[in-house]
Amino acid sequence: MASHYRLIHPKTHLRVLSRYEIQMLKDVSSETNELVRRCCYAVLNSGSQEDDYLRLEEEFKTFDIEVQQEDRGIVLNLINPPARAFVDGEIIRGVREQLFSVLRDVLYAQESILKAHRFDLAKGEDITNAVFHLLRNANLLKPDQKPNLAICWGGHSIPRHEYQYTKDVGYQLGLRGLDVGTGCGPGAMKGPMKGCTIAHAKQHNREGRYIGITEPGIIAAEAPNPIVNELVILPDIEKRLEAFIRLAHGIVIFPGGPGTAEELLYLLGVLSHPNNQEIPFPLIITGPEEAGDYLRDIDRFIAMTLGKEAQDRYQLIINDAPAVARAMKHGIQQVEEYRSSHSDAYFFNWALAVDEDFQLPFEPTHEAMAQLSIRKHLPQHELAANLRRAFSGIVAGNVKASGVKRVLQQGPYQLHGDADIMQAMDKLLKAMVEHGRMKIKGEYTPCYSIIA
């Protein structure tokens, strides 16, 4: 089969690279080369509805990327890129910008954070500082803006009526002058951004921000949607989650699968820390009427595992997009007042205490998953951390390269814990499967086994 080549020049950022950086990108045996190649393919594949890693891997095999240095800067030579990234032979401008965001973030993370030993990434304070530097390098920190960023979490595989509801909420947020950030993919990550763009256009707001935050392990199955105008790639899921809550002035959670459950448990675990009790952080769980029973199941799961204190940290609003936006606007005003009175930055939530259990990377091997302690006697934040790890492993087994391969070779992950917790978890996961929240297309084969 003949190869197709495309030469792409940067238009905005990262016009030049050092000889050392170019050599790293040219070295096909280097980790940096493989990360850049995979992330660039995901960006070029924006709009794809394929989330089966094995099929994506087949499509990916013929793709390659070369970096060339010219007198006026760098040029990317794309070999067999997905056709959907081009219109009449010209690359879509947003896709071009995201391509160079990949280079910026992966190179900076590898050379200035992970390999440079500037930070001790086994210590919580240094991890937070590393996240700050990664976001600053991506120009996401805006010191001159008052709090107005609503982060929206939700599933990439959702039915049409839920997608429409996420658009309605995004529209109501945008009408009230709020910007939107998501995990950057399709489904409940794309819907709020789409609604928000229309609202910003109606309000003649030309400075709207649509922030996408992702990581290399998940970007292939959740390619950045075309509305994202500020993309950042964090090195792993834990730093991605911390970036979300440090940037956010409030969070809206839509119906989703195990990834959304992981995000919710992460946030509730952080908010349950004793040092965070007085810090305002608006959190709303919402969805259309058809998702009401499912959202109430999640609410009951939280009550049974983490208790009423965790429930009190969020509002559950069913089928009322304006009410969601009003509650978020009011909550963000409280955030502004608190940060102003405590001389805390608007653009990065330094005051929030994040326990190291939520910061240190969790590698979901079969042994690590089987050893997770999911017991009621644990302190609330420890149980939340282990539940978060369990759902993180399920996400890995569903869509991440390493997790998918492990499950194929060794069978499903086994999860152990107190009988009542495991039964509630099994019920919640079965509801996710029945409602098609695990995969966009095709029949789902569980990557996990629940053992009470």
Can you tell me about this structure?
This protein is of the alpha/beta class and 452 residues long. It has helices at 19-26, 31-44, 53-60, 93-114, 124-137, 160-175, 191-202, 216-219, 237-247, 258-271, 292-305, 308-311, 321-341, 366-370, 380-399, 401-410, 419-434; strands at residues 5-8, 64-70, 73-79, 86-87, 90-91, 149-153, 179-182, 210-214, 230-233, 250-253, 283-287, 315-318, 413-416, 448-451. It has three domains: 5-118, MCP/YpsA-like, CATH 3.30.1850.10; 142-341, Rossmann fold (3-Layer(aba) Sandwich), CATH 3.40.50.450; 361-451, no CATH class. The strands form four sheets. It has a seven-stranded parallel sheet with strand order 9-8-7-6-10-11-12, sandwiched between helices.
Brief write-up:
With 452 residues, the protein is of the alpha/beta class. It contains 17 helices and 14 strands. Strands 9-8-7-6-10-11-12 form a seven-stranded parallel β-sheet, with helices on both faces. A three-stranded antiparallel β-sheet has the order 1-3-2. It has a two-stranded antiparallel sheet with strand order 4-5.
